[in-house]
Amino acid sequence: MEKDAPILIIGAGTFGLSTAYHFAQAGHSNITVLEKSTAVPPADSAGNDLNKIIRAEYEDPFYAELALQAMAAWKTNPLLAPYYHETGYLLANSAAAPDKAKKTLLKSLGSIQQHPAFRGKISPIERREDITKVAPVFDGPMEWKGYFNRFAGYAQSADALTAMYSACCALGVKFRTGDAVKSLIYTLDKDSSRRCTGAVTESGKTYTAVLIVLTLGAALATVLPEVGRQVAANAWSVAHIQLTPAEAEKLRGIPVTYARDLGFFFEPDRRTNLLKLCPSGAGYTNFCSSSEGGPSVPPDFNAFITPADEDKIRRLLRETLPGLAERPLINKHLCWCADTADSEYIIDFVPETSNNSLIVASGDSGHAFKMLPIVGQWSVELARAGKQETKRWRWKAGQDAGGDVSWRIGRPVDLRDVPLAVRSNM
Ligand SMILES: Cc1cc2nc3c(=O)[nH]c(=O)nc-3n(C[C@H](O)[C@H](O)[C@H](O)COP(=O)(O)OP(=O)(O)OC[C@H]3O[C@@H](n4cnc5c(N)ncnc54)[C@H](O)[C@@H]3O)c2cc1C
Ligand SMILES: *[C@@H]1O[C@H](CO)[C@@H](O)[C@H](O)[C@H]1NC(C)=O
Ligand SMILES: *[C@@H]1O[C@H](CO)[C@@H](O)[C@H](O)[C@H]1NC(C)=O
C-alpha cells in the first residue's frame, strides 16, 4: 500500500488509538480517525477510566506471550511508562468461591509458575498473614487462597489513552469526533466483488479511503451487521469510593487485589483519590435491544449498576477493608466490551469484501487494555501480509458469542431481566 493512501479508522478507543499510532509509526501519512464521542479518550470507550490491570497470566500461553510483550512496552516505551505501576497482583478466591473460580485460578497460576519471566516473583497465598505481608493495610478476615504476583500491576488507562492520542496527533493523524459513523460505503468492482471505500456519518459527512479499519469495540454490529453474533456486547460494572487524602495515602502502593468470585480494586487514583472497584461475574448483555436473533449491542444509558453488583462490591470490602464497606458508591456505570465465544480477538479482513479494503479489529473479550502498546501493530501486519495467518484471530463465521465462556463465573444477565427502574435514570 502507498504510504500516502488514505486510511480510515473507525472508533478511537483502545484498539483504534493503537491502530492509528502503529500505522502512523509505519510511515502512513493520510490517516483519519472517526469517533462518535465528542472527545478523546471517548466517553464510550471501554478503556476510558482510571485504571486497568496489567498482568501476563493466562490459561493460554499464546496470550501470556503477547501480554509479556505488551508489558515490556509498558515499562520501556517513554510514551506509556509514566502510567504503568508495578504494584503487584493479588489473585485469590474467597472461602465461598465456586469450583469453577478455583480451577481458573489454578490454570492461570500454572501458566506462569514454570515461566522464566516470573521466577522469584510468585508467592502462594494460603492464610491471612500471606496477604497482610504484601498489603499490611488490609484488616478484613480474608480467608483466601491464591497467589501474589510481583511482576504485574496496573496502568492509568485514561491517561495512557491520552498519551497515545497526543502521539497520534504529533504524527499527523486527523481526528473527527462527535459524529458517529452510520454506515459503510461499498462499490462494486468490475468482477462484481464488493469493495469498501469509506463511511458516512450521522451528520451526513462522507469519508473515503483505500483501507478502512473498524475498531468499534462493543458497537461493531451497529456498523457491520454481517458480523452477526460472533461478537456480543458484554458489560461489567464499575463503581468508586471517594477517599479523603489521608485515606488514600494509607492505601498508597497496595497491589491490584482480585478475589475471583467477588471482584477487584486498585491503588486509589493519585489525582482524585478515587478508589475504583469492579465486581466480578459474567456481566450483562443487551440482546433485548436488537431484533430476534440479532446481536447484543450497548444501550444508550449506562450510568448505573445493579443491586447484586453493589452487594458484591461491599462483600469484597468487608473481606479486605471493612472500614469502607458501607461508604457511598459513586460514578457507577456499565463498561461494554466485545465478547467472542472463545475469547479470541478478531483481527481480520471482512470476507467477501474485495481488495483487502475492510479490516475488523475487535472481539477484545474484556482482556485487551493491557495490549494497548501493541494491539495496533496486528492490523498493520495484517494489511501488509494480505491474509490472517494466525488462525485464532480470523473472522468467526457462524459462531455465537451468546453462550458460556470458560473463564467466567456464571452466565451473563440480559438487561431485559434488570428492572427498568435500575437501568434508567429515573
Ligand atoms: C469493567 C471493565 C474492566 C476491564 N478491566 C480490564 C483490565 O483490567 N485489563 C485489561 O487488559 N482489560 C480490561 N478491560 C477490557 C478493555 O477495556 C477492553 O478490552 C478494551 O478497552 C477494548 O478496546 P476497543 O478499542 O475494542 O473498544 P473501546 O475502547 O470501547 O472503543 C470503541 C470505540 O468506538 C466508538 N464508537 C462506537 N460506535 C461508533 C460509531 N458508530 N462511530 C464512531 N465511533 C464509534 C466508541 O465511542 C469507542 O470510543 C476491562 C473492561 C471493562 C468493561
Ligand atoms: C487496491 O488496493 C491498493 C492498495 O492496497 C490500491 O493501491 C489500489 O488502488 C486498490 N484498487 C482499487 C481498485 O481501489
Ligand atoms: C487524504 O485522503 C483524502 C481521501 O482520499 C483526500 O481527500 C486528501 O486529499 C488526502 N490528503 C492528503 C494530504 O493527501
Give the second-level CATH assignment, the architecture of the largest domain: 2-Layer Sandwich
Mean residue pLDDT: 95
The hetero compounds bound to this protein are: flavin-adenine dinucleotide, 2-acetamido-2-deoxy-beta-D-glucopyranose
CATH superfamily of the largest domain: D-Amino Acid Oxidase, subunit A, domain 2
Ranges with pLDDT <50 over ≥5 residues? none
- Rough outline: globular
Strand tally is 22
Discrete helix count: 10
What share of the residues does DSSP label as strand, in percent?
25-35%
Helix content: 10-25%
Give the termini separation: 52 Å
Total individual domains: 2
Instruction: Indicate the radius of gyration in whole angstroms.
Output: 21 Å
CATH class designation of the largest domain: Alpha Beta
Structural class: alpha/beta
- Per the CATH scheme, the topology name of the largest domain is D-Amino Acid Oxidase, Chain A, domain 2
- Largest beta sheet, briefly? 10 strands, mixed
Organism: Apiospora rasikravindrae
Family: Belongs to the MSOX/MTOX family.
Domain FAD dependent oxidoreductase: 7-382
InterPro entries: FAD-dep_OxRdtase, FAD/NAD-bd_sf, MTOX
